[in-house]
Amino acid sequence: MEFSEVLRRRRMVRHYTVQPLEDAVVERIVASALRAPSAGFTQGWAFLVLTEPAERQRFWEFVPARVERTPSMPDAPLVIVPMAHKKAYLERYAEPDKGWTDRDENRWPAPYWHIDTGMAALAVLLTAVDEGLGACFFGIMPEQLDGFRAEFGIPAEFAPIGAITVGYPAPGQPPARFEHRRRPLGDVVHRGFWGNRW
Ligand SMILES: Cc1cc2nc3c(=O)[nH]c(=O)nc-3n(C[C@H](O)[C@H](O)[C@H](O)COP(=O)(O)O)c2cc1C
């Protein structure tokens, strides 16, 4: 698929069929995350990948049904939880070529650990579209995180930034509700000087 088509088609898919994914497809989707850029090439991320029905069922215990998801979200055959590893960044940037040996977090113009893990998540979302699938990024609520970590043995220093479902979109997806809210270029782009609208 042309890249422009992948980008145009990408939207959050929240209704899935139970159709499983081939292992090779799962691997291509997961591996795409590792093509994302990362500050200092730190790659301070980790991914919990859940494909087995019993594993996925345990995951959905931490995503309340009424508010956070549609009834067929748990049918998605693949769940990926991208996690940011801040410590890896503090250590990488204390190396001689960077030199921030005090590991002071105030040096960071933005939390690159979250940015990079988000970039990896976007690679997953786009690769899912390229594979003819649908995907959705959604949050895991803070009050669920401790339980989620304990259930899957995730060390405290790894911070889940959310979760991604991937699968075959169910027929009759609802129309994009908020497309009319997509902000135009003139609203958000400042050309050459703040206030010079596109
Ligand atoms: C950081 C982030 C968090 C999001 N959290 C949720 C969420 O918790 N639940 C959900 O249904 N969608 C979530 N979304 C999806 C957005 O609602 C969606 O991207 C937005 O409405 C635009 O729609 P589109 O992605 O289909 O174009 C999230 C997206 C991002 C980037």
Protein described:
Strands 1, 2, 3, 4 and 5 form a five-stranded antiparallel β-sheet that branches. The protein is α+β, with helices and mostly antiparallel strands and 198 residues long. It is globular. It contains eight helices and five strands, in the order H-H-E-H-H-E-H-H-E-H-E-E-H. The mean pLDDT is 96. It has one domain: NADH Oxidase (3-Layer(aba) Sandwich). The chain has helices at residues 3-9, 23-33, 53-60, 65-68, 86-92, 112-130, 142-152, 185-188; strands at residues 45-50, 78-84, 134-138, 159-160, 163-167. The structure holds flavin mononucleotide. Flavin mononucleotide binds next to strand 3.
What structural keywords apply?
five-stranded antiparallel beta sheet; NADH Oxidase; alpha+beta; single chain; 198 residues; binds flavin mononucleotide; 8 helices; globular
Summarize the model shown.
This protein has 198 residues and is an alpha+beta fold. Helices cover 36% and strands 13% of the residues. The mean pLDDT is 96.
